[in-house]
Amino acid sequence: MKHLLLPLTLFLSSCATTSSPPQDIELTGRVLGSYVSASSGMSKGHILHVSDSSSTQKVSSVGNGNPQKILLVHKTPETLDNFSGKNVTVTGKIHSEHIDIFHTDFVIRINNISEQ
């Protein structure tokens, strides 16, 4: 019985941590800067806070989780500092991935961001 327990546990955990393939998406929301104190030091990130119902529905169709908080990833993260606190339109590839440090369930890799 104890030899069956480990494979069963591994199987269940692999089913619970499936991630969706990236999908193209366009969302509107407000960019918020986020600073988190971790054991390795301070971590900085940018969160898109989605309040538009159509954008929330788009995110919900990608996977389960909180569709109102999305971690933003940009090839030059300093660019996102210019948009902090502003309403923006973001296009990019989104996928569901739980990032515990920022308490987000979705990540979007930005192709384009513009102020509304």
SSE layout:
Elements: H1 2-16, E1 23-38, E2 41-49, H2 53-60, E3 69-73, H3 78-81, E4 87-99, E5 104-115
Parallel strand pairs: 3-5
Antiparallel strand pairs: 1-2, 1-4, 2-3, 4-5
Measure the end-to-end span.
60 Å
Number of helices: 3
Q: Order the strands across the largest sheet as they lie in space.
A: 1-2-3-5-4
How many strand elements?
A: 5
Shape: globular
Helical residue percent band: 10-25%
- Overall residue-averaged pLDDT value: 85
How does the major sheet shape up?
5 strands, mixed, barrel
What is the structural class?
alpha+beta
How do the SSEs run, as a string of H and E?
HEEHEHEE
Uncertain stretches of 5 or more adjacent residues:
13-17
Q: Could you tell me the strand content as a percent range?
A: over 45%
Q: How large, in whole angstroms, is the Cα Rg?
A: 16 Å
Would you mind describing this structure in some detail?
It is a single chain. By secondary structure, this protein is α+β, with helices and mostly antiparallel strands. The chain is built from 3 helices and 5 strands; from the N terminus they run αββαβαββ. It has a 5-stranded mixed beta barrel. The longest helix is centred in the first third of the chain and has 15 residues, at 2-16. The radius of gyration is 16 Å and the shape is globular.
